[in-house]
Structures are given as structure tokens and as C-alpha cells.
Amino acid sequence: MSAVNADLLFQPIKIGGKDLKHRIVYAPLTRSRAINNVPVPQAALYYSQRATDGGLMISEATAISPEAYGLGPHTPGIHTVAQVEAWKPVVKAVHNKGATFFLQLWHVGRGSHNDFQPGGAAPVAPSAIGITDKWEVYTTKGGPYKYPMPRALTEAEIPGIVEAYAQGARNAIAAGFDGVEIPAANGYLLAQFISSLTNQRTDKYGGTLENRARLLFEVVDAVTEAVGASRLGIRLSPFNKFLDCVEPEPYDTYGYIIKALNKYGLAYLHMVEPRVLGLLDVDVPEGETLQPFREAFDGPFIAAGGFKPDTAAEAVGTHAADLVAFGRWFLSNPDLVRRIKLGAPLTKYNRDTFYTQDPVVGYTDYPFLT
Ligand SMILES: Cc1cc2nc3c(=O)[nH]c(=O)nc-3n(C[C@H](O)[C@H](O)[C@H](O)COP(=O)(O)O)c2cc1C
């Protein structure tokens, strides 16, 4: 990669009132090291290794309530005092390096298992429609297991979910985070409400597009009221196929959502490229592109998924994105920002250690440039 290209990634930009010095974002990455759902002390080292002066980082998906957990074991939460206290030194370590840090607020909906749920209950979802056996779930008891049939949330339960997002946002700010990211993406609860294939409700949260997006906007209203729009970013993945949460009309549906998001003055919109399916690279299906969404959004736009340093610089250079988030390459290159600046080679990630509970191996032991 030429030095000129890399320079494109080192232009300043303002995000949610924060002055960033470069365009390389740490993408949200679940690491399954939060034993019993509380961040471990090594998380401070892990995140601070990847923090840079004037950089933006987004935390791993963090559960907003006891019902919000799923996909795999030992993911963190932000709904208990112990969790808020455990996040504080992690945030402090990131701030000490001069980075801005957003917490990703998470509810997996049907992407869960009875083992995660209070009292062994069924996971909750917009409708009682299960995830097919194509996907597997691991719990603290083992796995792989099939995803169980979820139960449909009652209308009366929905205000509690909205409030859990708002309280999660308040708790994140109390822990020191600069803001929160809400994923209506990756087949998590809010995306399950948006897709007509996973949401077959007949109340005001189902049916029309406006109804299917209602929960997202109730959450956005509540969180902006709780912590302010400049502290909220939204993540969307219109072309997602993970957990069978497919959007049949991606352009119409997400075009409508983005137009409606414009009125808030959010910190940013963060979108996932069609070339990744969950954690895997796939060929881009014909005609799938983020470009119309990028053009429709009025604020800072982060693109994620399958970027390398040269394609990231190209995306910023051609204004396809304002910032680029790196997932796997940031996981395995704690000094990714420096390596990109220098054009240095990258260390390959090891998938086998993505989700182990080891506090060192595959977590804090990836090498720095010497
Ligand atoms: C180990 C791992 C964990 C992930 N965890 C999350 C997560 O917690 N929340 C989320 O929105 N996306 C998550 N993702 C998706 C990434 O944020 C990103 O979109 C994806 O890895 C594609 O970017 P990349 O090609 O730069 O890796 C995860 C990906 C990986 C590899």
C-alpha cells in the first residue's frame, strides 16, 4: 500500500462531539472472556492495547438485561452494579490512551438458549419462529446445541425492553463510556423485529414497515432522551443472513429507517458490508451495496466488513465511508493503526481462540511490531 493511501485514513473527523485523529475504528468483537458475564481485569489490557490517541473503539456486545444474553457463554453485561464497576477500569485504560469508547448495547432475542435464560425459560422474540439447525449455540453447559423455539414477547413486555436499553445507556455513561452503539443488526432482537420473516406480529409492532421499525425507534427515543443523540451510534446490516434473520426488501426497509434516523443527529451510523456473513467472508451477491445507505445518511458513516488497509483507504478516499471499522485484523493486530500508518504486514488471526475463556492466549498475546 502506498503511503499516500494510508494518509487518507489519518484525517481528523468529529464524532459525537469528540475530535478523532484517524478513521480506523475498532469494531465490536465478542471475545467470551467475561467470566459469569462480568468483564475480567485483563479486558483493560486487551482494549488498551488496541486504543490509540484520537481513535474510536466500540466494545463487544454487552447485555442489557438477564434475558438479553445468548450466542455463546461469558459475554459481558451492563445491568448490574458489579458489571458497571468492572467496566470502569477498562474504560479508564482506553481513555488513558486518548481513545473514544462506545459500548455496544445488546439483546439477542431468539439468538439464545434456555441455559442463558432466568429460570431456564425460552428465549424471547418478536414471534415464535425458531432459528434453523444451520446455526448452533454454545452455552456455559456446553454445545453445540440447536437454537430452541423462542416465545413471542407480549405487547405489555415491550416497554420493559425499551427501558432496559435506556438503563443500559445510563449505566454505560456511569461506567465512563463516551457513548453507546445499538445494533439493529446481525440477527439480534431489533433486527428480528424489522424483518417480516422473523416478525409476524399482528399488534402495533408487526405488519407494516413502520410497525416493524417501531421498537427500534422507541429504543432510539428512549436512549437519546437518557444520554443524548450525540452519544448514540446505530449499527445496521441490511444484507445479513446470520441466524436466518434475512431482510427481503433491504433497500426499502433500511432506506426508510435511515431517513427516519436522520432527524436525531446521531453520533454515527455503522453499517456492515454484504461481503461478510457473520464472521465469514462471502462473495458479494449481485447488486448488494451500502452506497445508497451511505448517501441517505446525513451524519458520519462507518463501514465494516472485509476491509484491508488499502480498501479502507480507498473507501475513505472515494467517500464511500467516513470511517472504516476493522474486526478480525484488529483482534490479531493490537497495533493495527501503527501498522497501517507504516504499511507494515499484519498478523493473521486465529479463529480457534476467538471465543475461548483464556485471559491471555488469543486475547492479550498477539504481537506488536518490534
Ligand atoms: C470474534 C468476532 C466477534 C464479533 N462480535 C461482534 C459483536 O459483539 N457485535 C457485533 O455487532 N459484531 C460482532 N462481530 C462482527 C464484527 O464487528 C465485524 O462486523 C465483522 O468481523 C466483519 O469485519 P472484519 O471483516 O473486519 O472482521 C464479531 C466478529 C468477530 C470476528
From TrEMBL:
<dbReference type="GO" id="GO:0016628">
    <property type="term" value="F:oxidoreductase activity, acting on the CH-CH group of donors, NAD or NADP as acceptor"/>
</dbReference>
<keyword id="KW-0560">Oxidoreductase</keyword>
<dbReference type="GO" id="GO:0005829">
    <property type="term" value="C:cytosol"/>
</dbReference>
<feature type="domain" description="NADH:flavin oxidoreductase/NADH oxidase N-terminal">
    <location>
        <begin position="9"/>
        <end position="345"/>
    </location>
</feature>
<dbReference type="GO" id="GO:0010181">
    <property type="term" value="F:FMN binding"/>
</dbReference>
<keyword id="KW-0285">Flavoprotein</keyword>
<comment type="similarity">
    <text>Belongs to the NADH:flavin oxidoreductase/NADH oxidase family.</text>
</comment>
<dbReference type="InterPro" id="IPR045247">
    <property type="entry name" value="Oye-like"/>
</dbReference>
<protein>
    <submittedName>
        <fullName>N-ethylmaleimide reductase</fullName>
        <ecNumber>1.-.-.-</ecNumber>
    </submittedName>
</protein>
<dbReference type="InterPro" id="IPR001155">
    <property type="entry name" value="OxRdtase_FMN_N"/>
</dbReference>
<dbReference type="InterPro" id="IPR013785">
    <property type="entry name" value="Aldolase_TIM"/>
</dbReference>
<keyword id="KW-0288">FMN</keyword>
<dbReference type="Pfam" id="PF00724">
    <property type="entry name" value="Oxidored_FMN"/>
</dbReference>
